User: Fold this.
Amino acid sequence: MPEKKTTTKAVATAAPAKRAAAKTAAPKAEKPAAKVVAKAPAGRPVSAKAAAAMPKPAATPKRVVRKRAPAPVPATATGGPARSRAPRAWRKGARKTKVGLVVSAKQALTVIVQVERLREHPLYRKVIRVRKRFAAHDGAGDVRAGDLVRIEEGRPYSATKRWRVVEVLSRAGEAGAAAPKVTDIEAALEATEGSKDALAPAVLSPAIAMAPEEAHE
Assistant:
């Protein structure tokens, strides 16, 4: 038993001596290490050295956009550029107009215009008359109840006024005065037919008037 212990100690002391001899020996020539390109894993920050080692993408050529030159404006007789008035005319013509009858003119510079229109009932297909009233601004103040006027939409004059009177088409009572009278119609019919008794009431003779009474007897 004591001899075995001495042999294990001798082997243990020999191993460190071999390691020291290997360290003191001349180092062998190492091969140059290949360049390793660092790739950043997804979702992790990249250091400055790793970013410098990464290959840069090829630069794409910039696209050149050429702007079109504006069309030349035709010159007028005076030498200046011609101005188009089409947008102004379109804006002026885009305003809505309505024709209605004035039903109230009691307020100052304000009239109530009633507009009537015909529309078809969506369910019963019957033509019905729809009436709607608009408060219009009367700047001149000469519009009376019963006048037929034309109104046009404009700026808000008050809380309820968004229309203004543009034109008075006919005054109250003018339509009745211009209508032909009954006597004039009778005279025209007599002249065309050539008989003055055309419109006179029928008068029966006494013999004809008594005939029905005799028949009853």
